[in-house]
Amino acid sequence: MLTLPLEAIDKQEALRYMGCPAEPDEALRTVVDTCEQQLRRTVQPRVVYRVLPLCREAGTLSAGGMQLTGEDIARHLAECDRMLLMAATLSGQADQLIHRAGISDMTRSLAMDALASAGIEQVCNRAEECFREQLPDTYFTWRFSPGYGDLPLSLQPEILRLLDAEKRLGLTVTAEHILIPRKSVTAIIGLADHPLKKGARGCATCRMRETCMFRKGGTHC
Amino acid sequence: MLSSLFPHRKFIRLDGGMGSMLQKGGMPVGALPEVYNITEPERIIAAQKQFVAVGSDIIYANTFGANRHKMAKSGYSVQELISAGIACARKACAGTDTKVALDIGPIGQLLEPLGTLTFEEAYDIFREEVLAGQDADLIVIETMTDLYETKAALLAAKENSDKPVICTMTFEPNLRTFTGCTVASAAMTLEGLGADAVGVNCSLGPDELFPIVEEMAKWTTLPLVVKPNAGLPDPVTGEYLVDPAEFAQAVVKFAQLGVTVYGGCCGTTPEHIKAAYDLLEEAEIPRRENIEIPAAVCSASEVVLIDQPRIIGERINPTGKKRFKAALQANDMDYILDQAVQQVDAGADLLDVNVGMPGIDEKGMMIRTVKALQSIGGTPLQLDSTIPAVMEAALRVYNGKPIVNSVNGEEASLQNILPLVKKYGAAVVGLTLDENGIPKKAADRFAIAKRILDRATALGIPKRDVYIDCLTLTASAEQDGARETLEALHRVKTELGLKTVLGVSNISFGLPNREAVTRTFLTMALENGLDLPIINPNIASMAEAVRAFRLLRGFDVNCAAFVEAYANMPTATAAATPAAAAKPAAEKAPETLDLPYAMSHGLKNEGAKITAQLLETTDAMEVVNEILIPALDSAGKLFEQGKIFLPQLIQTASVAQAAFEVIKTTLIERNAAPVSRGEIVLATVKGDIHDIGKNIVRVLLENYGYTVLDLGRDVPCQLVADTAKEHGVKLVGLSALMTTTLGAMEETIQLVKQSCPDCKIVVGGAVLTADYAEKIGADFYAKDAMETVAVAKEVVG
Fold it and tell me: Are B33 and B62 in contact (CB under 8 A)?
């Protein structure tokens, strides 16, 4: 398990998540600043991971006994012989901060939520740097999560079991495949001993492409 | 009770890691080990026999995950899996004195407030396990990270069996669990609830666990348990790296802390365990005697030591507060939570919670309130009700060690309340009154205090958990009263050595300049030994008096807390100009700072202040219709045009919300009901827990004068339909953020249409489109909160 500090959060990114692409006014800037400090003071990001060999049999792809269904994950891992399975969480304290902020001030709640979303993404990036140090001479794909393309969200319980994430992270999943604590991520990174072609990344494989607010606004996440 | 199972033992030997043994034996990671109890019992027995062979006194049956949630897809019932698990352990122990423990681990789903599993459901799941495990000799609750879940399990064990119960939780190096539970909270709460031994297991190796157990030893008189992993696992391979000799060397160090129950968790083999037993046999284990536990109460995440005056906030109480009563009648939890947040921000260390008023279901309200308060933070609570059934309900769902307010010298009160205090491990406020009322003289109040103390200690309630309230009488009615109260307080403190509590606000009732009288009395009481003043911390001078007292008495080391609280306080001359926090206001001269300006600049406090001033000269509805709504409309237009963005729109709405709160309170105080444009039901559908979008919609709808019945998130489909029907609403708003929960949205729509055919439904949420909304039977799709307001205007008017 990695225990990572929550480093300074990219506030511009958080503002974008909040639906505020322009320069914020003084009042909003203050809200974002205080929320960022509070979040960083309070949460304890944690990451667990495991490297699993990929198994290709009779046209199916699996790892550690977990079936990886769908065309998109197959394409993602096409050149790889093993994968790194990871789960990361900001911890339940983040959920509590978001909730509490909403009691007296929706702006704070929205800011806290957006900052936490940006924060968990940063934690994943930081974790990936650690993996690269741990696994020298290995080539990585980008992080592919359940819900991307046609990789089903129903994989979440299996992923948590393989990582023993409930015990090691306190991470659980609801019957509807929502991770709790909320600000958590599971992902698959393909690994290989040789350089990899850059796979398609972005809106083309995204489930949200029809409804995404960024796409509606002509940008992307 | 644990030691009676093992008389004359220097220490009790627990087993080692079963999971890792089974995995070594070929069980795949991710398999359900409990199923092996039935399909391959010989494997389980063989593994356990190895621990019996090295001398374990207790074998944990292979039932750790045998709950109905984790075993849902196993094909076996909880009863089958647990019976088989205990039978395996019995076979492994055959011919020895080794005892078998029913092993209970976490459910695997997070409890409320973070998760969706309720406390009551968790209790029921554990109850099923306890009942299925009647053949065991004792019960072990282990690897817990959530104190609430541990409490549910321990209550289930205590209420459905008479076996000894060992509780161990899993902590991180920061002395907290994943969910933020402190070591002290765990020890205090679990001892209070009747555990027979407490300790730690898993997550870390023995070296890393040492400071955790060292801390725990300060907070409990119970036998201590330690069951560490074989060090930390290798991050890539997952292998545990500490060998048996190293493990034993590290474990034996716990002897100096007086730990008397030892075992191993993940990665510990029979060799590890044997090596540890051998060294412990040689070690000296000092008896843990005469341990002075500090007086304290706690939530899961916060411990409040009663080692200096601590403020109990009194505002969550409807007595004499029309606005609060209206909130209770309307089940307006946000109002109550806001009262909590304000008091904590103003310096409350604890919060008194009283929701009793005629005509409401006080028990149901108390449960909802305690749970809601627990969802926003860790300030410990003082549960306040005169009805024993309400008190018990509150004690049950409280997560931590609360204060019970109150017991008094009346026989009925002593008989009803003290057993509850004992059972749930709370602290208790004893009021110095009895069948004859409040004695006039200090000596008589002292005598009642003594009687309450004697009765409490006779039941096994520790003396440190009895706090005495010598009762404040109104000075204008009985001028000698203050002196008697202070004298009684002083005697209780010095002669009985008890902590004291006092509601001080009553002292000034009926007098002008109440604040001066109350504050002075508070200071006098503090000097006479008051530990827990019950005050309104929102009155600045009250919190100031307590903070200053702590400073002058040397509790506030280096004046740090005082400076932190007041460093940014404007000086007398600076106070005339706007404070630093309200900087944007300074751009505009104060006389032109109006409500629309405050709204567009997110100036909440100013907005509330201006509204209060306006209400002195202007009719409330005029303020709403002529000022608030037009300002909101123009913000809405700017938002639609892309000239301002969501955060600015919400800031404007937040100021409007603050203004509305002022209007509402004023109207209620004048006995005029606020005018509503109509009721709208809002909910995030079953299974979905995203609620920020829905909350934004609610705030905007409320701004426009609609009464929103917000059912929250993860709302059962039928409840939405029932509420819509009961209130005869014209519009229901539903939110879903996940493709997996759209089914629940469709079902909810159908149910609403069945029970109220005329009711319209508006839906929104990230995964929805106008087409899809139409397909599942919704009447409207709203892409954002402003569109929902437009729909409301069209449907409700």
Answer: yes
- Segment A53-63 shows an average pLDDT of 92
CATH homologous superfamily of B2-282: Homocysteine-binding-like domain (3.20.20.330)
CB burial class (10 A; 0-12, 13-18, 19+) of residue B565? middle
Instruction: Extract the tokens encoding A161.
Output: 């079991």
Q: What are the tens digits of pLDDT across the range B464-479?
A: 999 999 999 999 998 9
Instruction: Please tell me the distance from the alpha carbon of residue B97 to that of residue B671, in angstroms, as a whole number.
Output: 74
Hey, which CATH number is domain B679-795, 3.40.50.280, 3.40.1280.10, 3.40.250.10, 2.60.40.10? 3.40.50.280
**CA A150 to centroid of chain Cα atoms:** 17
Nearest-CB residue to B108 (from A28, A93, A166): A166
Which tokens belong to B771?
């087409």
Q: Is B247 exposed, middle or buried (0-12, 13-18, 19+ CB in 10 A)?
A: buried
Q: Kindly report the pTM of this predicted structure.
A: 0.90
**Residue B703 contacts A where some CB pair is shorter than 8 Å:** no
* C-alpha–C-alpha distance, residues B316 and B332, integer Å: 13
Do the Cβ atoms of A110 and B766 come within 8 Å?
A: no
Instruction: Select the residue of B180, B650, B689 nearest A178 (Cβ to Cβ).
Output: B689
Q: What is the pLDDT of residues B631-684, one digit of tens each?
A: 999 998 988 888 888 888 888 888 998 898 899 888 888 888 777 889 999 999
Distance CA B207, CA A94 (A): 29
In this structure, which topology does domain B296-566 adopt according to CATH?
TIM Barrel (3.20.20)
Whether the CB of B202 is below 8 Å from some CB of chain A: the reply is yes
What CATH number is associated with residue A116?
3.40.109.40
Q: What is the ipTM of this complex?
A: 0.84
Domain annotation covers residue A221: no
Contact across the interface for A178 and B738, Cβ inside 8 Å: yes
